[in-house]
Amino acid sequence: MTDTSTLRAESRALVSYGVERYEDAVTYSAIRRYLDDIGAIPSGVWGTLPVSDQLRRDWSIALDSRVDESLTAKDEMDRMADGLLQIATDYEHTDLSVATSFDVVNRDLQPYLAVADGYTSTVGTRLGGAGVVSTAQHHRPDPDDRSALVIPPGNDRLTATRHEVLPSTRVVEEPLVIGSSDGNDLGFSGGRTTYYDNGEHDQLDEFVQQYRSELLQLEAILTDLGTSERLPLSDLIIHAWRSSPKVIRNRADLIHSVGNTYGELRTNMDADTHGLALYWEGTAASAFTQYAENASTYLGQIQAQADWLAEEGKKAASLLEGLRNAYAVAGFERIGTLIEAMQAYRENVHGLFSSCSNPEKAFLDTVSAFVGYLADAERRHVELLATLIKIDEQERHERPDLGGRGHDTVPFPAPAVGSNAWTQGNGWKPNPTRPTT
């Protein structure tokens, strides 16, 4: 291990900056793995609404862009680390081996650091070499392989991503029972029925569980009548019930850890860049300052993109919750009327002259009003959902890139001078007025 206290002050500044950027590169590799894992919202949680496929697709496209940005950030930090540590090595005419600390990392990202590309306790360079020579294992992250990740106790929100159970239905053939509750009319129970498991435990789920039997009976009557009316539970409510806005909200909010980390590392790099300029001057040193400023601008841009993705996901969760609540309110307010209409229909259809009294009209009118109310609630919320995480059509038509998006992958800024100008060791000159420590 190199005793850096024996190096000249200007060399120590280069080494410190280079090691920090190496650590940043590894952290951005951890971000890539984090996005691949936490950002991979289970397909089923978007529900089966008309807009669900669009939300699922647009989230995936936007997430891929954020992953690409993390890889670009990693590559640029690796380039800085390689260049500056090699310049320091050649300037001091000695090989270097320096410890890493990884002291800046978000608690949500911490479990991903140890499985990130380049994670190691030391970095080294060789005189006359071409950058960092690391003994670190280089991982090929598989988003489905979680075996190497250890989530520390107390991080409940990250732990929750390992215990997600999605809504599901199951059809059961129960024994048919014939009996009477009051000694008069015989009734039937059992037979083929549907159960709704692993719901959100919100108002909509409570409504479905409480009135599942009545709603299925109502739908059986509608089917028997051959009406074209949409079935309240099977054609409308079920599509929102299958969604899991709590899962979407938790995972989207965890994406904020990416933006927070970009912001923190950017602030540290800006301070390091300012400090490095106190020790060095010359054409290469000036070119590096410009390059580092470009990198800082880039980090600010991708921080904004990560925060945008997190907020859009939370908005989608809120709108899905709104639709679920609208269904629940409509259901609880009107289920009594539906049950009364269904009971009246049954009584009328078994009464005298039922064939000429048109007993289904009042029943169908009540059902139609209820379904219309549900459909209107769905329409209003689906229109809002459709505006999230979407392609900006006007921008797409105006830009030459046919796949252009307002939140497409942000490219790294082009340098004002040659991209390799700062890597020329002979262009780094110690500042005569540099600090001695």
Short characterization:
Helices cover 57% and strands 8% of the residues. The chain has twelve helices and six strands.
Largest sheet: 2 strands, antiparallel
Count of individual beta strands:
6
* H and E order: HHEHEHEEHHHHEHHHHE
Kindly name the structural category.
mainly alpha
Instruction: Assign an overall shape.
Output: elongated
- Distance from first to last alpha carbon: 20 Å
Uncertain spans, ≥5 residues at pLDDT below 50?
352-356, 391-404
Rg, Cα atoms, Å: 31 Å
Describe, in plain words, how this protein is organized in 3D:
With 437 residues, the chain is mainly alpha-helical. The protein is 57% helix and 8% strand. It contains twelve helices and six strands. The strands form three sheets. Strands 1-2 form a two-stranded antiparallel sheet. It has a two-stranded antiparallel ribbon with strand order 3-4. Strands 5-6 form a two-stranded antiparallel sheet. β3 (168-179) and β4 form a beta hairpin.
Topology:
Layout (H helix, E strand, L loop, with lengths): L8 H30 L13 H41 L3 E4 L10 H4 L8 E4 L30 H5 L7 E12 L7 E11 L5 H23 L6 H10 L3 H10 L1 H21 L3 E2 L1 H67 L4 H4 L2 H26 L7 H6 L30 E2 L7
Antiparallel strand pairs: 1-2, 3-4, 5-6
Helix pairs in contact: 1-2, 1-8, 2-9, 5-6, 5-9, 7-9, 8-9, 9-11
Give descriptors for this structure.
two-stranded antiparallel ribbon; 57% helix; 437 residues; two-stranded antiparallel sheet
